[in-house]
């Protein structure tokens, strides 16, 4: 279940930050719309590394070094 809070809950940020865990971000809404996500730094690092890998694979594919679909098959994605 997603942990969704209004941005006004930041007034008590210590309590809000205790709810953030590695696998459970807190999503903040502003005027009823999703605006922000607070994630654990380990999760942020993992997501950033994943994006970098995908970008490198796309670069390799565009240069003809590797096929992205072959890479997905090889790594079971």
From TrEMBL:
- The organism sits in which domain of life? Bacteria
The record's annotation in Pfam families points to: PhdYeFM_antitox
Where, if anywhere, are coiled coils annotated? none
Task: Extract the InterPro entries matched here.
Answer: Antitoxin_Phd/YefM, YefM-like_sf
Q: What does this protein do?
A: Antitoxin component of a type II toxin-antitoxin (TA) system.
State the similarity comment. Belongs to the phD/YefM antitoxin family.
Q: What is this protein's name?
A: Antitoxin
């Amino acid at each position: 279940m997603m942990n969704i809070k209004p941005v006004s809950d930041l007034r008590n940020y210590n309590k809000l930050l205790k709810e953030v865990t590695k696998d459970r971000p807190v999503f903040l809404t502003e005027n009823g719309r999703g605006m922000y996500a607070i994630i654990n730094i380990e999760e942020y690092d993992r997501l950033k590394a994943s994006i970098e890998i995908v970008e490198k694979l796309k670069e390799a594919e565009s240069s003809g070094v590797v096929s992205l679909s072959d890479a997905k098959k090889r790594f079971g994605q």
